[in-house]
Design a protein that fits this description.
This protein is an alpha+beta fold. It has five helices and nine strands.
Length: 247
């Protein structure tokens, strides 16, 4: 079956933004994040989808779209799909034409320009309470956030995500000596663990608020260590692009 994408003619030149715009136009795709190396090699593609299309079909659609439009061959193992029946696909705007840009100029290194996880600590307190501390690094400086919650499986992950959001908010405060970012708030919408491709994923939803603007963000991370670490990484993924545009 041929795939057609409105406003996106086939082109051998590509950027991360153009690839994400292309994949966002696929049926059932709610959000996309593409990770690539300097020079143009794609390392990872993360997608959040609703239930319109099966995860396996979504992977095939991604492979076909990138090959047809940008002549890119991507190993299916680099494509991860988190599916949720609660996800709602947004109405997409007509894509604006993009000027050709050298990909080396827009692709940072793995550490450059990204909020990094340094570590986290989970302490169980009396009365089935849990205290979580998360430390991140941005621009050579460390920032910490804490949260207190109930020591139950889902509540524990929500507490981890809230501690991560508190640390991320601190990065904005640290880069804001004049106080112009005082109206910036990151509020947890929810945390959910789900299974896809025989693996467990943590999905995090965040409401990002800056003055009168409100954005709904989502991130997903496979559970490769502990669910708590996956919740932190999913939270960082959800907020990275939004917060980077404001610090």
């Amino acid at each position: 079956m041929a795939l057609h994408f409105k406003g996106l003619p086939p082109d051998s030149g590509w950027t991360i933004q153009r690839a994400e715009d292309l994949l966002s136009s696929l049926q059932g795709v709610v959000s996309v994040r593409v990770v690539a190396r300097p020079g143009g090699e794609i390392d990872e593609i993360h997608l959040l989808t609703n239930t319109e299309v099966s995860p396996k079909q979504t992977v095939r659609n991604v492979e076909s779209a990138l090959k047809a439009h940008f002549h890119l061959e991507v190993d299916h193992r680099k494509i991860s799909v988190a599916q949720s029946s609660d996800a709602v696909k947004k109405v997409e705007k007509e894509p604006e034409p993009l000027k050709p840009v050298l990909i080396e100029k827009i692709l940072p290194s793995r550490a450059e320009g990204r909020i990094l996880l340094l570590g986290h600590q989970v302490e169980t307190e009396r009365g089935r309470r849990v205290r979580v501390a998360v430390t991140v690094e941005w621009d050579g400086r460390e920032y910490a956030g804490e949260a207190l919650g109930t020591d139950l499986p889902r509540s524990r992950l929500e507490t981890v995500a809230r501690a991560t959001l508190a640390a991320i908010e601190e990065t904005a405060v640290g880069q804001d000596p004049d106080g112009s970012k005082a109206g910036l708030t990151l509020a947890l919408d929810g945390v959910k663990e789900m299974e896809a491709f025989d693996r467990n994923y943590i999905l995090v939803g965040v409401n990002a608020i800056h003055e009168r603007d409100v954005a709904t963000l989502a991130g997903a991370s496979p559970v490769e260590g502990t669910p708590e670490r996956a919740a932190i990484l999913a939270t960082l993924q959800a907020t990275h692009r939004w917060i980077r545009g404001r610090i």
